[in-house]
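Module 6 notes. Inverse folding takes a fixed backbone as the condition and produces residue identities as the prediction. Think of it as a translation problem where the source language is geometry and the target language is the twenty amino acids. Below is one complete input and output pair. Work through it position by position during the lab.
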């Protein structure tokens, strides 16, 4: 079947993974009931990923990157809505005809209907980086240090959040016969075996997170922004590959080019190039933001302890 003829999602389809055996088949509901009201697992899973990411960042930020919890809170307040807006706009621009209304107001309203679905992480990531960069510049705080911390939270959010696509039977690739394929049997009894792109990305980001966590805990980070560059290169590479398998790609209007593939391909090239260039440059550990913050605190402590010592000597 032509890849573009496949639907974007398979709601209600029975899920199988041939590699787990013929007896494995599940049909999870995309909703759940709580206090008499119906909610979507999609939002709950993304919310869980966000919460776990924030907890991780708040634990490591002040200690390992010199970024206070107040700064991280501000970054979340700025970054979250900007990411949602950017992800929505990027998706809408790729489906312009679908969201164009009869008037400007109706078009804007169609853009705002995010609860009907439709968002793209690359667009959200770019706008979020821009907004946090503006915030860091105004507050005179290291943007690199903030995003080195936040990169871990982003990875956790993607690792967990991608399973919301599993519940919705979406973010799938072309038909395939590889051993890790995902089977989807519709109500009509037709089974499609597709690339589970959400699973590929989740596992890839898990591998990257574990590697960066161990690497950074061992004190290997040489400059602010290094973790961010690793994240952008790592994520950009997998999206560059996976976008080529998608059955419902976002296209640059008026062209056959896949918007997310072009954008994330560029992100990968730029981030990887910067990592390579910086690897050949000397880096002074004293210029790391976390060490600057520590040095400042030690100076403040010495200054505050000085007068007390003098008073005690005067008494003697």
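Target side of the pair, the amino acids:
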């Amino acid at each position: 079947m032509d890849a573009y003829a496949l639907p974007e999602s398979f709601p209600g389809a029975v899920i199988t993974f041939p590699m787990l055996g013929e007896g494995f088949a599940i049909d999870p509901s995309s909703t759940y009931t709580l206090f008499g009201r119906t909610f979507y697992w999609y939002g709950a899973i993304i919310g869980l990923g966000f919460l776990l990411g924030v907890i991780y960042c708040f634990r490591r930020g002040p200690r390992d990157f010199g970024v206070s919890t107040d700064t991280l809170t501000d970054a979340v307040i700025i970054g979250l809505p900007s990411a949602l807006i950017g992800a929505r706009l990027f998706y809408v621009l790729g489906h312009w005809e679908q969201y164009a209304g009869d008037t400007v107001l109706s078009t804007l309203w169609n853009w705002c209907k995010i609860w009907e679905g439709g968002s793209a992480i690359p667009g959200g990531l770019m706008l979020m980086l821009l907004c946090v960069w503006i915030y860091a510049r105004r507050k005179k705080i290291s943007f690199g240090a903030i995003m080195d911390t936040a990169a871990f939270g982003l990875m956790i959010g993607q690792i967990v959040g991608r399973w919301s696509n599993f519940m919705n039977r979406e973010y799938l690739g072309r038909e395939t016969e590889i051993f890790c394929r995902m089977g989807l049997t519709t109500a009509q009894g037709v089974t499609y075996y597709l690339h589970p792109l959400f699973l590929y990305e989740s596992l890839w980001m898990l591998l990257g997170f574990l590697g960066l966590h161990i690497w950074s805990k061992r004190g290997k980070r040489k400059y602010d922004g290094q973790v961010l560059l690793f994240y952008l290169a790592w994520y950009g590479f997998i999206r560059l590959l996976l976008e080529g398998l998608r059955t419902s790609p976002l296209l640059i209007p008026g062209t056959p080019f896949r918007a997310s593939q072009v954008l994330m391909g560029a992100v990968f090239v730029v981030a990887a190039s910067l990592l390579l260039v910086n690897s050949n440059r000397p880096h002074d550990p004293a210029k790391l933001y976390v060490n600057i913050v520590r040095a400042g605190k030690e100076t403040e402590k010495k200054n505050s302890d000085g007068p007390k010592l003098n008073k005690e000597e005067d008494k003697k």
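Reference fact for the lab report: The CA atoms of residues 132 and 241 lie 28 Å apart.
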